[in-house]
Amino acid sequence: MSHSQPPTGEQPSPAGPPAAGRRGTSALKWGAAAALAVLLLVGAMLVTGNIAKGRAHASDAGAVQETIRLEATSRGGGHVTWTLGASSSSHDFTSRWSESFQRNGEVIMMKVTGDFGDPEAAVTCKIYVNDELKVSASGSGGQGLATCVYPNR
């Protein structure tokens, strides 16, 4: 029996298929890994967005139920300025002023001033939430000023 030898220049490859085939498999693995990474990133973004929406819903639900009442008093004449979020309002009053509304989560700021020429001037501001006093302040004298903020952040 004679053994046949491969023609010169061709050697049998004991390691398997040519290197080009291995390179294709490697590219396929990297492509699959990249696709998996993209899917994980998109999934994380969706979960994070849903959590944030849930928190916003929970805070909105609690905030809608709050009834706010602002009160200002002054010995003699007074002036009140208040803001709710980006809107503001001001009123001149004598002795006592009050206003009620529903709060939707905005910060409330209230400033009360009295008669700056009267050394006996006295002013107060009060913020009630669902009929519970949350903030109260007072000022007196010629520079009488009372400032209330809710919630204090």
Query: How many domains in all?
Result: 2
Oligomer classification = single chain
Number-wise, the strands total 6
Instruction: Label the CATH architecture of the largest domain.
Output: Sandwich
Number of helices: 1
Strand content: 35-45%
H/E element order = HEEEEEE
What is the level 1 CATH name of the largest domain?
Answer: Mainly Beta
First and last CA, distance: 97 Å
What name does CATH use for the topology of the largest domain? Answer: Lipoxygenase-1
Structural class: alpha+beta
Main pleated-sheet profile: 6 strands, antiparallel
Query: Averaging pLDDT over every residue, what do you get?
Result: 75
Uncertain regions spanning at least 5 consecutive residues: 50-59
Helix content: 25-40%
Topology (elements, then pairings):
Blueprint: H1 19-64, E1 66-84, E2 87-103, E3 108-113, E4 122-129, E5 132-140, E6 145-150
Antiparallel strand pairs: 1-2, 1-3, 1-4, 3-6, 4-5
Overview of this structure, please?
- This protein has two domains: 18-64; 66-150, Lipoxygenase-1, CATH 2.60.60.
- The chain is of the alpha+beta class.
- Strand 4 and strand 5 form a beta hairpin.
- It is built from one helix and six strands.
- The termini are far apart.
- The relative contact order is 0.13.
- The chain has one helix at residues 19-64; strands at 66-84, 87-103, 108-113, 122-129, 132-140, 145-150.
- Strands 1, 2, 3, 4, 5 and 6 form a six-stranded antiparallel β-sheet that branches.
